[in-house]
């Protein structure tokens, strides 16, 4: 809704901008309140799991909240079963003699999208760390 109101603001006549600004302000305030409530709930009820997930590079508040909310099986199933449940485990497309391409699909797409962004963020951190290490190794002693 917030994005929709921001888009409307860009195209609205001057007479309605004050009203749209009020709505945007209320939506932003509500989003902040919900975010702080959710963070408090996660810290209160899932402190151990949250701390464990937070120790991973690239994993932030959004990833932690999504994993805790949408994958309650975390810690109860094996990594292979969790991977299949989320939809990141390759699935065979075989039938008889035909060997199809292994692809990932199905599962919980919202979790898969959040994990992709976390992996992208972690790869940026790891790349900068690797570049710094390479520069140190190549520097004359």
Architecture blueprint of SSEs:
Blueprint: H1 2-11, H2 14-45, H3 47-54, H4 61-70, H5 79-86, H6 109-138
Helix pairs in contact: 1-2, 3-4, 4-6
Fold and architecture overview:
The protein is mainly alpha-helical. The protein is 70% helix and 0% strand. Helix 4 (61-70) packs antiparallel against helix 6 (109-138). The longest helix has 32 residues, at 14-45. It starts with a helix and ends with a helix. The model has no long low-confidence stretch (mean pLDDT 89).
Short précis:
With 141 residues, this protein is mainly α. 70% of the residues lie in helices and 0% in strands.
Tell me what portion of residues adopts beta-strand conformation.
Answer: under 5%
Mean pLDDT: 89
How many β-strands, per DSSP?
A: 0
**Whole-angstrom Rg:** 22 Å
Task: List the secondary-structure elements in sequence, H or E.
Answer: HHHHHH
Counting H and I runs of at least 4 residues, what is the number of helices?
Answer: 6
The span between the termini is: 57 Å
Major sheet characteristics: none
Low-pLDDT residue intervals, each spanning 5 or more residues: none
Class derived from helix and strand content: mainly alpha
